[in-house]
Design brief:
heterodimer, A: 183 residues, mainly alpha, Arp2/3 complex 21 kDa subunit ARPC3, 7 helices, 68% helix, globular, B: mainly alpha, 2 domains, 8 helices, 0% strand
């Protein structure tokens, strides 16, 4: 119980801290908002249920007025911008990511976690994000999708990093990777 | 300052937080059903007036919070000038500005402690589903306390990297960062248990 609470809170803090750390630039200069990487890690490391709770805790703190989103944004306004759909997709994305990592045991963890992050944290989040944009900007779904497609390559790189990190974490701290540790 | 709530005190700071939140929900829904340009312009003028009534400092702080919208403003403006539906574009833009300004207004005029009281009230029914209210309180406090701790550890790692490499820190730094976070979680869990934890101790 205490370990679950501590890990859920810690990963919410990891998402927040990833928004504070000065830019981690990827190999070829793609600027990344590392926070979605944190959401992917919530799913791949904590698993479906706890990963979702962790993301929900983070969003709750943002909603009550803490400036935890990257760039010091936060408050209820974060849910009133056209990109709010992505935020609403975060917990569902984390759930799907975690669910895939928990169920699919047939391949190396790094591969499973990467695929899970791509399906859960890119496909699912973009579905919500694009729907949100379409509503807020009064555009069709395909027009809204066109506006965000430039961000997909960066997110795929993040998913690969999430996969590599998850595999490495499972080697170094197996008992803390709750999505795979049955103890 | 830890919360985005405004240090400029307004009358609205003393209004019940739950009422402000309910009002915001209603106002946002109404905004999405209004299609008339003149009505939207009127609403935005009224919202601006409310901000101004709290003083210039409050107004400027509110204005700064709206900067996040600029990419969307540019996209919508170009799009609708291109397609010629400028009136529809103006409605969309005014609606975006009013919705965000109203949401920020509630955040700016509500203290963190009042917000947490609303959260406690709203999550009370979840206790029946097994959510421990003490655990939620502790989790909120932990995140607030641990975020700066983790950020500090992250910047220590970055400095250690810079001291040893001519290259910029890469994503590889995230592995020691997450390992540190997992170890912190272990220590916090032990500390919580040592102080009684969330479940009463059972007799052996």
């Amino acid at each position: 119980m205490e370990k679950n609470i501590a890990l859920i809170a810690l990963f919410a803090a990891v998402i927040a801290a990833l928004g504070l750390i000065p830019k981690i630039t990827l190999g070829f200069g793609v600027p990344i908002t590392a926070q979605t990487l944190g959401v992917m890690l919530c799913g791949t490391v904590l698993g479906a249920r706890r990963g979702t709770l962790s993301v929900l805790l983070f969003l709750l703190l943002v909603a009550i007025g803490l400036p935890l989103l990257s760039g010091g944004r936060g408050g209820l306004g974060a849910f009133a911008t056209p990109s709010a759909g992505f935020l609403l997709g975060w917990p569902i994305g984390a759930f799907v990511t975690g669910w895939i990592v928990e169920k699919w045991r047939g391949a190396p963890l790094g591969v499973v976690a990467t695929v899970a992050a791509i399906i859960g944290s890119i496909v699912v989040m973009y579905v919500f994000g694009i729907a949100g944009l379409a509503v807020a900007l009064d555009k069709s779904l395909s027009e809204a999708a066109f506006l965000v497609l430039v961000f997909v390559p960066g997110d795929v790189i993040k998913a690969v990093i999430a996969g590599l990190l998850t595999a490495a974490l499972f080697k170094s701290r197996p008992a803390s990777v709750l999505s795979r540790y049955d103890g | 300052m830890i919360s985005l709530s405004s240090p400029v005190k307004t009358r609205a700071h003393d209004w019940p937080a739950g009422m402000k939140l309910a009002g915001l929900c209603a106002a946002t829904i109404v905004l999405f059903f209004i299609e008339n340009l003149a009505v939207h312009a009127g609403i935005l003028v009224a919202v601006t007036g409310v901000y101004l009534s709290a003083g210039a400092l409050f107004f400027m702080a509110g204005l700064r919070q709206l900067r996040v919208l600029w990419p969307f403003v540019v996209i919508v403006a170009i799009w609708h000038i291109w397609t010629g539906e400028t009136q529809q574009g103006a409605v969309i833009l005014l609606r975006l500005l009013s919705a965000l300004a109203l949401a920020n207004l509630v955040t700016m005029t509500t203290r963190l402690s009042d917000m947490i009281d609303v959260v406690r009230l709203l999550t009370r029914p979840l206790a029946k589903l097994g959510l421990n209210p003490a655990a939620l309180d502790m989790a909120i406090a932990l995140v607030i306390r641990l975020t700066p701790v983790l950020a500090q550890k992250g910047s220590n790692l970055t400095q250690a990297w810079r001291a040893r490499s001519p290259r910029k820190p890469s994503w590889r730094i995230l592995l020691p960062f997450t390992v540190l976070a997992l170890d912190d979680a272990d220590h916090v869990a032990q500390a919580l248990r040592a102080r009684g934890g969330f479940t009463p101790l059972k007799d052996p």
